């Protein structure tokens, strides 16, 4: 029976010294990778979107996250809502957060 199963022998050496520092270095590297790959790009996108929302004004043509394209008729600063005219007959009220892009002037006429 010992032909197929090899015998295991215990090692006489103790644990290696200095094993704690490698783990801290590894955790530090993961933190740096997390910062540059996940946190920093997301923070940059949030900052750009806040600048976009702050720069919107009456008469701007915008695209919403729902796919609606319209012209801003009224901006309400106190409660972060805007009145958006889709055409001459339809106006909707949406939150500023749902605007994804400010389009160049004349985009509505070219559609």
TrEMBL record:
Entry keyword annotation includes Protein transport: yes
Coiled-coil ranges from the UniProt annotation: none
InterPro entries according to UniProt: Preprotein_translocase_YajC
Transmembrane feature ranges: 20-39
Membrane topology, as annotated: Single-pass membrane protein
GO cellular component, one term: plasma membrane
GO biological process: protein transport
Compartments reported by the entry: Cell membrane
Principal location class: membrane
Record keywords, A-Z: Cell membrane, Membrane, Protein transport, Translocation, Transmembrane, Transmembrane helix, Transport
SMART domains reported in the protein's UniProt record: YajC
Similarity annotation: Belongs to the YajC family.
Protein name per the record: Sec translocon accessory complex subunit YajC
Native source species: Vibrio rumoiensis 1S-45
């Amino acid at each position: 029976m010992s032909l197929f199963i090899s015998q295991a022998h215990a090692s006489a050496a103790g644990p290696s010294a200095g094993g704690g520092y490698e783990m801290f270095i590894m955790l530090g590297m993961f933190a740096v990778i997390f910062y540059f790959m996940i946190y920093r790009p997301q923070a940059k996108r949030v900052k750009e979107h806040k600048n976009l929302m702050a720069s919107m004004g009456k008469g701007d043509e915008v695209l919403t996250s729902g796919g609606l394209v319209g012209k801003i008729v009224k901006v309400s600063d106190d409660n972060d809502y805007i009145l958006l005219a889709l055409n001459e007959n339809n106006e909707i009220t949406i939150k500023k957060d749902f605007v994804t892009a400010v389009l160049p002037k004349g985009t509505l006429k070219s559609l």
